[in-house]
Design brief:
By secondary structure, the chain is an alpha/beta fold. The chain contains 7 helices and 6 strands. Helix content is 34%, strand content 12%. The protein is globular and about 50 Å long.
Protein backbone atom coordinates (compact mmCIF):
# COMPACT_ATOMS: atom_id res chain seq x y z
CA UNK A 1 0.00 0.00 0.00
CA UNK A 2 3.00 2.28 0.32
CA UNK A 3 4.20 1.72 -3.24
CA UNK A 4 2.50 1.89 -6.60
CA UNK A 5 0.45 -1.06 -7.80
CA UNK A 6 0.42 0.32 -11.33
CA UNK A 7 2.40 3.09 -13.04
CA UNK A 8 3.75 6.04 -11.03
CA UNK A 9 1.82 9.28 -11.37
CA UNK A 10 3.63 11.77 -13.57
CA UNK A 11 3.23 15.38 -14.60
CA UNK A 12 2.70 17.04 -11.21
CA UNK A 13 4.71 17.50 -8.07
CA UNK A 14 3.61 15.30 -5.20
CA UNK A 15 1.20 17.14 -2.88
CA UNK A 16 2.25 18.17 0.59
CA UNK A 17 0.33 16.03 3.08
CA UNK A 18 -0.72 18.23 6.00
CA UNK A 19 -2.51 16.41 8.78
CA UNK A 20 -3.56 19.60 10.59
CA UNK A 21 -6.31 20.31 8.09
CA UNK A 22 -7.94 16.95 8.87
CA UNK A 23 -9.25 18.56 12.04
CA UNK A 24 -11.81 20.27 9.80
CA UNK A 25 -13.58 16.93 9.30
CA UNK A 26 -15.83 17.82 12.22
CA UNK A 27 -17.08 20.84 10.32
CA UNK A 28 -18.02 18.61 7.39
CA UNK A 29 -20.04 16.38 9.70
CA UNK A 30 -21.94 19.40 11.02
CA UNK A 31 -22.59 20.72 7.50
CA UNK A 32 -23.99 17.35 6.45
CA UNK A 33 -26.86 17.67 8.94
CA UNK A 34 -27.70 21.08 7.53
CA UNK A 35 -27.63 19.95 3.89
CA UNK A 36 -30.81 19.05 1.94
CA UNK A 37 -29.14 15.89 0.60
CA UNK A 38 -29.02 14.46 4.11
CA UNK A 39 -32.82 14.46 4.20
CA UNK A 40 -33.16 13.05 0.71
CA UNK A 41 -34.11 16.37 -0.87
CA UNK A 42 -33.09 17.15 -4.43
CA UNK A 43 -31.69 13.69 -5.16
CA UNK A 44 -33.13 10.60 -6.89
CA UNK A 45 -34.72 7.90 -4.76
CA UNK A 46 -33.16 4.47 -4.47
CA UNK A 47 -34.58 1.30 -5.98
CA UNK A 48 -34.01 -1.00 -3.01
CA UNK A 49 -30.64 -2.22 -4.28
CA UNK A 50 -28.18 -3.62 -1.75
CA UNK A 51 -25.25 -1.38 -0.80
CA UNK A 52 -22.35 -2.61 1.33
CA UNK A 53 -20.30 0.10 3.06
CA UNK A 54 -16.68 -0.53 4.07
CA UNK A 55 -14.81 1.57 6.67
CA UNK A 56 -11.27 2.87 6.37
CA UNK A 57 -7.98 2.15 8.10
CA UNK A 58 -8.12 1.67 11.88
CA UNK A 59 -11.91 2.15 12.17
CA UNK A 60 -14.99 -0.05 12.06
CA UNK A 61 -18.53 0.08 10.70
CA UNK A 62 -19.64 2.56 13.36
CA UNK A 63 -17.70 5.23 11.47
CA UNK A 64 -20.17 4.91 8.58
CA UNK A 65 -23.38 4.92 10.65
CA UNK A 66 -24.46 8.26 9.14
CA UNK A 67 -24.07 6.91 5.61
CA UNK A 68 -25.86 3.68 6.49
CA UNK A 69 -28.88 5.55 7.87
CA UNK A 70 -28.89 7.94 4.91
CA UNK A 71 -28.81 5.16 2.33
CA UNK A 72 -31.74 3.49 4.03
CA UNK A 73 -33.60 6.79 4.21
CA UNK A 74 -33.31 7.44 0.48
CA UNK A 75 -34.46 3.97 -0.56
CA UNK A 76 -31.56 1.53 -0.60
CA UNK A 77 -30.90 -1.59 1.46
CA UNK A 78 -27.58 -0.87 3.19
CA UNK A 79 -25.33 -3.47 4.79
CA UNK A 80 -22.49 -2.99 7.21
CA UNK A 81 -19.32 -4.75 6.10
CA UNK A 82 -18.93 -6.72 9.32
CA UNK A 83 -15.37 -5.44 9.75
CA UNK A 84 -14.84 -5.10 13.49
CA UNK A 85 -11.58 -3.19 13.14
CA UNK A 86 -9.90 -2.45 9.81
CA UNK A 87 -6.41 -3.25 11.01
CA UNK A 88 -5.86 -6.80 9.79
CA UNK A 89 -4.73 -8.65 6.69
CA UNK A 90 -7.19 -7.60 3.93
CA UNK A 91 -7.05 -11.10 2.49
CA UNK A 92 -8.28 -12.54 5.79
CA UNK A 93 -10.91 -9.81 6.18
CA UNK A 94 -12.36 -10.67 2.78
CA UNK A 95 -12.32 -14.40 3.45
CA UNK A 96 -13.74 -14.25 6.96
CA UNK A 97 -16.23 -11.41 6.74
CA UNK A 98 -16.84 -9.71 3.42
CA UNK A 99 -17.56 -12.75 1.29
CA UNK A 100 -20.29 -13.73 3.75
CA UNK A 101 -21.73 -10.20 3.78
CA UNK A 102 -21.71 -10.08 -0.01
CA UNK A 103 -23.48 -13.42 -0.33
CA UNK A 104 -26.11 -12.41 2.21
CA UNK A 105 -26.76 -9.10 0.47
CA UNK A 106 -27.10 -10.77 -2.93
CA UNK A 107 -29.43 -13.44 -1.53
CA UNK A 108 -31.66 -10.98 0.33
CA UNK A 109 -31.95 -8.48 -2.52
CA UNK A 110 -31.94 -11.05 -5.33
CA UNK A 111 -29.46 -9.05 -7.36
CA UNK A 112 -25.94 -7.71 -7.63
CA UNK A 113 -24.96 -5.16 -5.02
CA UNK A 114 -23.02 -1.90 -4.82
CA UNK A 115 -19.85 -1.44 -2.76
CA UNK A 116 -18.91 1.88 -1.16
CA UNK A 117 -15.57 2.12 0.61
CA UNK A 118 -13.77 4.90 2.44
CA UNK A 119 -9.96 4.97 2.21
CA UNK A 120 -8.65 1.43 2.85
CA UNK A 121 -12.25 0.22 2.70
CA UNK A 122 -12.38 1.35 -0.90
CA UNK A 123 -9.20 -0.53 -1.73
CA UNK A 124 -10.70 -3.69 -0.26
CA UNK A 125 -13.93 -3.06 -2.18
CA UNK A 126 -12.01 -2.85 -5.45
CA UNK A 127 -10.29 -6.14 -4.73
CA UNK A 128 -13.62 -7.82 -3.93
CA UNK A 129 -15.05 -6.49 -7.18
CA UNK A 130 -12.05 -7.85 -9.04
CA UNK A 131 -12.61 -11.32 -7.66
CA UNK A 132 -16.42 -11.42 -7.65
CA UNK A 133 -17.50 -9.12 -10.44
CA UNK A 134 -20.57 -11.26 -11.13
CA UNK A 135 -21.96 -10.19 -7.73
CA UNK A 136 -20.97 -6.50 -7.86
CA UNK A 137 -22.87 -3.84 -9.79
CA UNK A 138 -20.61 -0.92 -8.92
CA UNK A 139 -17.75 0.28 -6.74
CA UNK A 140 -17.58 3.77 -5.25
CA UNK A 141 -14.35 4.75 -3.50
CA UNK A 142 -13.78 7.78 -1.26
CA UNK A 143 -10.17 8.86 -0.89
CA UNK A 144 -8.97 5.33 -1.67
CA UNK A 145 -5.44 5.12 -3.12
CA UNK A 146 -6.05 1.89 -5.01
CA UNK A 147 -3.35 2.70 -7.54
CA UNK A 148 -0.63 2.89 -4.87
CA UNK A 149 0.16 5.88 -2.71
CA UNK A 150 2.39 8.22 -0.86
CA UNK A 151 1.31 8.25 2.79
CA UNK A 152 1.81 10.86 5.43
CA UNK A 153 4.82 9.66 7.53
CA UNK A 154 2.70 9.27 10.66
CA UNK A 155 0.19 7.11 8.80
CA UNK A 156 3.04 5.07 7.37
CA UNK A 157 4.28 4.46 10.92
CA UNK A 158 0.80 3.21 11.87
CA UNK A 159 0.74 0.92 8.83
CA UNK A 160 4.05 -0.62 9.89
CA UNK A 161 2.78 -1.06 13.44
CA UNK A 162 -0.33 -2.86 12.16
CA UNK A 163 1.83 -4.99 9.86
CA UNK A 164 3.96 -6.17 12.78
CA UNK A 165 0.80 -6.98 14.72
CA UNK A 166 -0.57 -9.02 11.80
CA UNK A 167 2.63 -11.02 11.45
CA UNK A 168 2.75 -11.71 15.20
CA UNK A 169 -0.94 -12.60 15.41
CA UNK A 170 -1.35 -14.80 12.37
CA UNK A 171 2.17 -16.16 11.82
CA UNK A 172 1.80 -18.98 9.26
CA UNK A 173 -1.64 -17.77 8.11
CA UNK A 174 -0.21 -14.77 6.25
CA UNK A 175 2.66 -14.28 3.81
CA UNK A 176 5.92 -12.62 4.95
CA UNK A 177 5.21 -9.49 2.88
CA UNK A 178 1.65 -9.13 4.16
CA UNK A 179 0.40 -5.52 4.30
CA UNK A 180 2.91 -4.33 1.70
CA UNK A 181 2.67 -3.82 -2.06
CA UNK A 182 5.13 -6.70 -2.47
CA UNK A 183 2.72 -9.30 -1.11
CA UNK A 184 1.65 -12.00 -3.56
CA UNK A 185 -1.72 -12.76 -1.94
CA UNK A 186 -4.96 -12.95 -3.88
CA UNK A 187 -6.09 -9.61 -2.38
CA UNK A 188 -3.43 -7.70 -4.29
CA UNK A 189 -3.77 -9.92 -7.33
CA UNK A 190 -7.45 -9.03 -7.64
CA UNK A 191 -6.77 -5.37 -6.83
CA UNK A 192 -4.37 -5.08 -9.76
CA UNK A 193 -6.94 -6.35 -12.24
CA UNK A 194 -8.89 -3.95 -14.43
CA UNK A 195 -12.55 -4.17 -13.49
CA UNK A 196 -14.84 -5.47 -16.24
CA UNK A 197 -17.29 -3.13 -17.96
CA UNK A 198 -20.09 -4.81 -16.02
CA UNK A 199 -18.82 -3.16 -12.81
CA UNK A 200 -19.38 0.60 -12.82
CA UNK A 201 -16.75 2.73 -11.11
CA UNK A 202 -16.69 6.01 -9.22
CA UNK A 203 -13.67 7.51 -7.49
CA UNK A 204 -14.22 10.50 -5.20
CA UNK A 205 -11.15 12.43 -4.06
CA UNK A 206 -9.98 15.73 -2.61
CA UNK A 207 -6.80 17.58 -3.52
CA UNK A 208 -6.59 18.79 0.09
CA UNK A 209 -6.30 15.22 1.37
CA UNK A 210 -3.95 15.37 4.33
CA UNK A 211 -3.28 11.63 4.61
CA UNK A 212 -2.78 10.15 1.13
CA UNK A 213 -1.65 11.35 -2.29
CA UNK A 214 -4.94 12.12 -4.05
CA UNK A 215 -3.45 11.36 -7.48
CA UNK A 216 -3.51 7.64 -6.71
CA UNK A 217 -7.23 7.77 -5.85
CA UNK A 218 -8.35 8.22 -9.47
CA UNK A 219 -9.54 5.72 -12.07
CA UNK A 220 -7.93 8.00 -14.70
CA UNK A 221 -11.25 8.17 -16.52
CA UNK A 222 -12.69 11.69 -16.26
CA UNK A 223 -16.24 10.32 -16.42
CA UNK A 224 -15.66 8.31 -13.25
CA UNK A 225 -13.47 10.66 -11.18
CA UNK A 226 -15.07 13.33 -8.99
CA UNK A 227 -13.22 16.00 -7.05
CA UNK A 228 -14.71 17.51 -3.90
CA UNK A 229 -13.50 20.12 -1.43
CA UNK A 230 -12.72 18.76 2.01
CA UNK A 231 -10.59 16.46 4.10
CA UNK A 232 -9.70 12.78 3.84
CA UNK A 233 -11.40 11.87 7.11
CA UNK A 234 -14.43 13.99 6.28
CA UNK A 235 -15.19 12.29 2.97
CA UNK A 236 -17.49 9.96 4.90
CA UNK A 237 -19.60 12.99 5.94
CA UNK A 238 -19.10 15.45 3.08
CA UNK A 239 -22.48 16.65 1.67
CA UNK A 240 -21.09 16.85 -1.86
CA UNK A 241 -19.91 13.24 -1.60
CA UNK A 242 -23.43 12.19 -0.65
CA UNK A 243 -24.83 14.02 -3.68
CA UNK A 244 -22.39 12.23 -5.99
CA UNK A 245 -23.20 8.84 -4.46
CA UNK A 246 -26.94 9.41 -4.86
CA UNK A 247 -26.59 10.45 -8.49
CA UNK A 248 -24.27 7.59 -9.39
CA UNK A 249 -26.31 4.88 -7.69
CA UNK A 250 -29.41 6.09 -9.54
CA UNK A 251 -27.92 5.74 -13.03
CA UNK A 252 -30.13 3.31 -15.00
CA UNK A 253 -27.18 1.36 -16.36
CA UNK A 254 -26.03 0.70 -12.80
CA UNK A 255 -29.08 -1.28 -11.87
CA UNK A 256 -28.08 -4.81 -10.88
Amino acid sequence: MATSLNQPVEGEDAPVLSMWQEALAGVEALLLHAAPVYYGLGIPRGDGSGVIILPGFLVNDIYLMEMYAWLKRIGYQPYYSGIRWNADCPNLIIGRVLNETLERACDETGDRVHLIGHSLGGIIARSVAGSRSEDVASVITMGSPFRGTKLHPRIFDLVNMVRRHILDKHEEKVLPDCYTASCTCSFLDHLKKDLPDSVAQTAIYTRTDGLVDWRYCLTQDADNDFEVTGTHVGLAFNPRVYEIIAQRLAKPEWRG
